[in-house]
Amino acid sequence: MNINKNYLGSINGSDVFQYTLVNDLSTKVQILTLGASIQSIVLPFSDGTDKNVILSYDNWETYQHNPLYLGATLAPNAGRIEGAVLPIYEKTYTLSQNEGNHNTHGGFHNASLQNWDEVSTHCNSASCSVTLTIKLSDGLDGYPGERCIQTCYSLTNDNSLKIHYYAVTDKATYLNISNHTYFNLSGDFNRSGLEQQIKVDASRFVANNNEHIPASIVSCSGSPFDFSTYTSLETNIALHPDHEQLSIAHGYNNAFIFDQMNNQLKKTLSIRDRSSEYIMELSTDAPGIVLYSGGYIGDQWNLAGGFKSSDSCAIALEAQDIPNSPNFLPELCCYTTPDCPYDRTIIFKFISD
Ligand code: BGC
Question: For site-directed labelling of 29, which of 50, 127, 152, 300 has its Cα 20 to 30 A away?
């Protein structure tokens, strides 16, 4: 177990650091203070090569504006709030509109665009961790409450990367924090991310309108959203070529609602690829997950490893509340208050196949 801190440079007077966490299996995870982002997850393969299995820019400076939200901490809210209108108990707040009429990922000043501060680093024989923090001021992008958010990344010797979010506020507010890492377990970003197979413990998904705003809850059965057994995204797309949801998203950009919604940490999704030696198991205590298959990535980004981006070259898995919960599912919506801090965990576990 080892952690190494590296000074990368300064942006607007704020120092940017990179933390490299390495476990006894030689798995290496790099974290940036910019957006508290996961910059790379490098796994050792049996042919002696090390492969980064997540989408990464070829240089750290791009993370300051991070157009694809690669690896970023999405806060205060992952996903869209319809019409940028946020009801919290008896009050309604008007948020900034950074995507059409909507507020996405928290607005223009969201936490993925901030340079976070270090709280602490730790290393012992079982795990290595770094905790980063950011303060979002009351009223920033319209969200109430001075919110102090912490993201802790721990790499363990069972090959898990655990993400723990904890936040306090001085006023009732809405927090729905997630991570925006895109995976292609083959480590080859010239291969489509749609070749990956996933299995999700969800029998319902959320259908969106054509602005990616949740519109209805639908059964997965008999649809391209049926991932009850390992199925590749491309197989499900080929079976339902004219499905309206797939055309809206150029693939998938939908939430799955987990069958068990009891706030307990549970294994909810697994992903594998026939060109990879690793399966990734995702555990979380969130009620759902958004699968964004990268249909809008574009081909203009230079990626680490000398790759060039392309649509769907990797897929994002964002464990979170059901998007737009304050408006769409108010009965399920949980607010963060001064008495009830925000607490959420996401674990990516890499198991050699
Ligand atoms: C993702 C965004 C992405 C978008 C495409 C979302 O659900 O989280 O970051 O750019 O869909 O419209």
Answer: 300
Binned at pLDDT 50, 70 and 90, residue 202 comes out as: very high
Per the structure block, which two tokens stand in for 73?
């901490």
**Which residues neighbour 187 within 8 Å (Cβ) at sequence distance 6 or greater?**
43, 45, 51, 52, 53, 276, 305
- Whether a cis peptide bond, with omega within 30° of 0, leads into 144 is no
Which residues lie across from 318 on neighbouring strands?
A: 290
We report the CATH number of the domain holding residue 151 as 2.70.98.10
Domain count of the chain? 1
Instruction: Please choose from 112, 178, 296, 318 the residue to mutate so as to test ligand 1's pocket, defined by most ligand atoms within 8 A of CB.
Output: 296
pTM attached to this predicted model: 0.97
DSSP 322: P
311 CA to centre of ligand 1 in angstroms? 12
Mean pLDDT, the chain, integer: 97
Residues with CB under 6 A from ligand 1: 69, 79, 212, 253, 290, 292, 296
Rounded to 5 degrees, φ, ψ at 311 are: -55, 135
Distance 292 CA to ligand 1 centre (A): 7
Q: Is the per-residue pLDDT at 260 higher than 90?
A: no
* C-alpha radius of gyration, the chain, whole number: 19
